[in-house]
Amino acid sequence: MTDLILSLDVTDRSEALRIAAAVAPEADAIKVGYPLVLAAGLGIAHDLAELGLPLIADFKVADIPNTNTLICEQVFAAGFSAVIAQGFPGPDSVLACVDAARAAGGECYVVAEMSHPGARTFFSEGVPERLCAIVAETGADGIIAPATRPERVRALREQVGTKKILSPGIGAQGGDPAAIAALVDGMIVGRSIYGAEDPAAAARAYAPYRR
Ligand code: O7E
């Protein structure tokens, strides 16, 4: 299965709800991050959860273990079903997120490598592979890996085996769904869907790549 994950990075509450409702029949999950939550409040999660799709909290949690626990408890209490954490704070910090996810019956994903050009500065020289080792060590559910660099996704698949890979960078950042869909478990797509005149139709265009 390759899921289509709508990245709902709009900053107007009613527009977010309108787009999410229109796209929901064409998508498998919705990812919400700082842009929408800072604009509309954490309560938007409860409204979105009513659409019946898994809701992923993209807060790239990156603190000491105790603070990560406190953040993740709020995330899951708000109605999210998964959280995204950074791995660079170390295994104990990631484990705090994984434990909070498990306590809530949810999932935790770790950023292994990012999709933008500047990501090469620090997500290089074996660092993504070390982050994948933290995923294995902590029992996290999977990684975030860049659709803009399919060859790197292939390399990271070797590291994570059957754990899930969710991949952003398709569309607006230049990633090609035809090149990435078969390599990953989830395609994360934002602007090319929510920025389209007809977001539902734009989401439907990804149907051939959902397996
Ligand atoms: O480029 P777009 O509009 O399709 O949006 C992509 C989304 O994925 C956006 O929310 C961005 O913050 C996120 N993202 C990346 O684009 N690149 C990354 O390397 C990581 C993420 C991300 O979502 O990280 C956690 C999943």
Automatic annotation (TrEMBL):
Pfam families: OMPdecase (PF00215). GO terms for biological process: 'de novo' pyrimidine nucleobase biosynthetic process; 'de novo' UMP biosynthetic process. InterPro entries: Aldolase_TIM, OMPdecase, OMPdeCOase_dom, RibuloseP-bd_barrel. It comes from the Archaea. Its EC number is 4.1.1.23. GO terms for molecular function: orotidine-5'-phosphate decarboxylase activity. Signal peptide: none annotated. Gene3D superfamilies: Aldolase class I. Keywords: Decarboxylase, Lyase, Pyrimidine biosynthesis. Residues 3-206 form the Orotidine 5'-phosphate decarboxylase domain. It is an enzyme of class 4 (lyase). The active site is at D58 (for ompdecase activity), K60 (for ompdecase activity), D63 (for ompdecase activity). NCBIfam families: PRK13813.1 (NF010386), pyrF (TIGR01740). PANTHER family: OROTIDINE 5'-PHOSPHATE DECARBOXYLASE. This is Orotidine 5'-phosphate decarboxylase. It comes from Methanofollis fontis. The lineage of its organism: Archaea, Methanobacteriati, Methanobacteriota, Stenosarchaea group, Methanomicrobia.
